[in-house]
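[User] Could I get a sequence and structure tokens?

[Assistant]
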Amino acid sequence: MRRLVAPLGLLLALLLCLPGVPGLSVAGPSPAAASEAGEAGDVGDGSAQGTDPYWPLDGNGGTDAQHYDVRVRYDFASGKLWGRTAIAMTATADLRSFSLDLLLPATAVRVDGRKARFRRAGKHELRVVPKAPIAAGTSFRVVVRYAGKPGSYRYAGERNWLASGTEVVAMNQPHMAPWWFPSNDHPSDKATFDVRVTVPRGKQVVGNGVRVGRKVRGGLATTHWRMSDPMATYLAFFAAGRYAIDRGTTAAGIPYYNAVSRGLEPRLRSYVRNVLNRTGAITDWLQATLGSYPFATTGGLVTGLDVGFALENQTRPTYGAWIYPGVIVHELAHQWFGDSVAVQRWRDIWLNEGFATYLEAAYAAEHGGPAVPVYLERMYDKTCADPTSAFWRLNIADPGAARVFDEAVYDRGAMTLAALRNRIGAGPFAALLRRWVAEHHDGNVTVEQFQALAETVSGDSDLDGFFDTWLRSGTVPAPTPANGLRDVTCG
């Protein structure tokens, strides 16, 4: 995710605008208890809570999602959505019942083809009771039918549905799925996806992955998109409206699919389209820097709706009309850092946002901007004079739910990586990033794992002090070589 204006990131954004661009209480067991229940298999009711203390209701105990087959129909005039989602799951405990995350009212549920009892458990949970218990290790299929107006619902202080009478786009972080399909809504439970969206035939639909096909029946059309690599639920999206489409392959042979809303004024649309079409070249640069692009296709979508952030939806990031080259670098870098290599816990968000912001700086360094060490020096000089600021006080390895998208997570996170590059050397650092994404492709990771790999790759077995100073100390790092700051003074 990248917001419209990040104060410290604004300078970098300008540098990248290079010449040539125009009913049940939700109270329940603690996350730890829920985890134990899911592992031990000695509790017959899968917890309605996951294991993440930032948002304890995200995800559920006792089940592991494997594949989502999401089919929705959306009516622009009323703002109503009808859905049928089939989920292939595996029981990780003996289950009498289990939960799914869903805000819209369910109308029917089946488990392995048999009607199941269900009820709402608070505003966010759907409790399902199958006809017969499900044994641990068993694969099963649950089908949920549901309907409602997504724009009427709120969760965790968020009202995330983004739509007008002519366009809709399901994009947000850290939550989006419960507004349009039932799921285990946490990045630690990835799955593959088929998504079919039905809208009036005059509209187009854009989604993740590869476009499988489009079928027209009367006044309606159903478009099918498939994501064959595991994906976190918040990264699943669809957009429907009228779009100008550009497709082809990058110089390195990666297929791309770009879409720009025709709701934008023509001159703005032309400008935005030209900027978005940098996606191919930027994807190729990132591949050359980080190793093989992790998915089958790349691209992006620019909505005509008023959105103040961009998001790294897997294979096809979504942007507002304020798009600029740096934000494309940021969201495409997330395809490696955040999408393919996803966080295990929301506290690990630095591994997404700090890394994507660092890649903005690295891209700028190779395209007419300051070298990475100079970028670090300038950022340090800009921030070090106020050691009591929130920018330095925040523990970016555990920022808390209210501050996961704080400026420090992004910019101090990027500075940490630039300083690590100074500390261990440019060559070992480049090898570290490539090995990180290769070893954890399609996986989930923690900050502690990254530190361990940094020590292994660099041969420096004592980086505890470095990471504690930059991530957790709450103070300005001293300008020393041990902190990756050479010939730097504050002020």
